[in-house]
Write a structure and sequence with these properties.
The chain is of the alpha/beta class and 466 residues long. The chain has 4 domains: 108 residues, Beta-Lactamase (2-Layer Sandwich), CATH 3.30.450; 201 residues, Rossmann fold, CATH 3.40.50; 76 residues, Orthogonal Bundle (Helicase, Ruva Protein, domain 3), CATH 1.10.8; 66 residues, Arc Repressor Mutant, subunit A, CATH 1.10.10. It has a 5-stranded antiparallel β-sheet with strand order 2-1-5-4-3, sandwiched between helices. Helix 15 packs across helix 17, helix 19 crosses helix 20 and helix 20 packs across helix 21. The two termini are 51 Å apart. Bound molecules: adenosine-5'-triphosphate and magnesium ion. The site of magnesium ion has 3 residues, from helix 9.
């Protein structure tokens, strides 16, 4: 596709990352509004002037733009803190690339993302956690673990076996890697293991590795000591806060590879060094990790370093998706009915036959979380004894058909086919699918299709399906 003229310029003006481009001599050629807002400058003060004129406190070394212009090596994800002219303390993550054409340096481009607020929020969270763990008198408040093995509902053979292995893992301090699709209960399992382990009375600290930019994640994990350039304060990291307990690193495959190397070192050497510190501190932390793709696939795709994979995968627990645990369905349904009946003051006894049937054939891509939400949603709107199809989210009740020989579900007129013929074919495919889904129960299929039972019977005869 050809971009219309000026598209790129409009785009650069609209994005909320700062973009600063200098030529090979260090004179600014482009400086967008986001960069100006970030630094509290006016573009006219910057464009056409040399970097060192605009930022007198910098020199050839400390200016990343000039540094990259001389080394021709990109500098990626570099955290920087500064006070802009209104006295506001700003933290950014910058990436700087040389623009080289035919072996000649044409200029340098730097993009900056403002992470001031994310950083403040993360640090406040660390401070609050530190304060909670510091109050030995308030044991109930200190207990951040919410789930235990009793909360893990399931009777399917695969699930019972998983629970048995998890209970055994609770007795040791070995690293545990939990994998499973979204909503299968990974966090619940990890918390249960911690709670049942000898570390159960010590802190449980969780961090999602996909939630923060690399530099911030590093300082949150390992802690910092006061330093003007990074704007850091003396602050313990999550490793120190979790001392004696468990650190749960969720979505570990989203952790940038360079940080994975540092994590591996901590796991092997069992001490940490706060960023900017020369001193090392011993830590006794059990590491549990989770991810929602196959870990070996994550290794193959370069998301997870192989050496780290072997280190964190001492005990591997795989939670099967809900669709592969049909025996868990009735138990979970009852569990969530009880929970939301209690919460909402309702008296729903169960599911209609059509809903039961649907629950067993539906693929549950969001697993237990999706089931829980479906039941909670239905209980909010029902005034009947059982949950009906009409009270479920629309996407759950959808009947999909695939036309033989056509790759996607979009309906297209085949050459030589009329509109009437195509509609009849689609109707037939949908009715067949609904009949399959309801195991030839006409009432259930009619409910799935949203038509009266008599209409379905009539259509079945008309389409020669009955
Ligand atoms: N076996 C179970 N018994 C009872 N509740 C469960 C079970 N499994 C999951 N849940 C419920 O499903 C919801 C999702 O669980 P959890 O947050 O542990 O999933 P997850 O695997 O960590 O998902 P994600 O990958 O999206 O983070 C929670 O509300 C939890 O209580
Ligand atoms: Mg989770």
């Amino acid at each position: 596709m050809q971009f219309p003229e000026h598209t790129l310029e409009v785009l650069l003006r609209l994005v909320d990352v700062g973009v600063h481009v200098v030529d090979a001599n260090g004179v600014t050629r482009y400086y967008n509004d986001a960069a100006a807002k970030l630094e509290g400058l006016d573009p006219s003060q910057v464009i056409g002037r040399h970097i060192l004129d605009v930022y007198p406190s910098l020199d050839g070394q400390s200016s990343t733009l000039l540094q990259v212009a001389s080394t021709l090596q990109p500098v990626l994800n570099h955290q920087q803190a500064f006070t802009h002219y209104k006295g506001k303390r700003i933290t950014t993550v910058n990436s700087t690339w040389p623009i080289v054409v035919d072996g000649q340096l044409q200029g340098v481009v730097e993009v900056s993302k403002d992470i001031t607020e994310v950083r403040q929020l993360s640090e406040r969270l660390v401070d609050l956690q530190a304060r909670i763990f510091d109050q030995p008198s308030k044991k109930s408040e200190r207990q951040t673990t919410r789930y235990t093995f009793d909360d893990l509902i399931g009777q399917d053979r695969s699930f019972v076996e998983l629970k048995r292995m998890a209970l055994r893992a609770a007795a040791s301090s070995s690293s545990v890697l939990v994998c499973g699709e979204t909503g299968t209960g990974k966090e619940l399992l990890v918390q249960s293991i911690h709670h049942a382990s000898p570390r159960g009375s010590k802190p449980f600290v969780a961090q999602n590795c996909a939630a923060l930019p690399e530099t911030l994640l590093e300082s949150i994990l390992f802690g910092t000591i006061r330093g003007s350039f990074t704007g850091a304060e003396n602050r313990p990291g999550l490793f120190e806060l979790a001392d004696g307990g468990t650190l749960f690193l969720d979505e570990i495959n989203a952790m940038p590879p360079s940080l994975q190397v540092k994590l591996l070192r901590v796991l092997q050497e069992r001490y940490i060094r706060r960023i900017g510190d020369s001193r090392v501190r011993p830590v006794d932390v059990r590491i549990m990790t989770a991810m929602n793709i196959d870990p070996w696939q994550a290794v193959q795709q370069g998301q997870l370093r192989e050496d780290l994979y072997f280190r964190i995968n001492v005990v591997q627990l795989e939670i099967p998706p809900l669709r592969q645990r049909p025996d868990d369905l009735p138990l979970l349904v009852q569990h969530f009915l009880d929970k939301y009946n209690r919460q909402l003051g309702k008296h729903v006894m169960g599911l209609s036959d059509a809903v039961k049937q649907l629950f067993y054939t539906y693929s549950w891509p969001g697993n237990v979380r999706e089931l829980e939400h479906a039941i909670e949603g239905a209980l909010n709107i029902t005034d009947q004894d059982v949950i009906e199809l009409s009270q479920l989210p629309a996407h759950l009740v959808r009947v999909e058909c695939y036309r033989p020989g056509v790759d996607n579900a979009a309906v297209t007129l085949q050459p030589g086919q009329t509109l009437r013929e195509t509609l009849a074919e689609v109707e037939m495919l949908l009715i067949e699918q609904a009949m399959r889904q309801s195991e030839n129960n006409i009432s259930q299929a009619a409910a799935l299709l949203g038509i009266p039972r008599q209409t379905l019977q009539y259509r079945l005869r008309a389409l020669h399906l009955a």
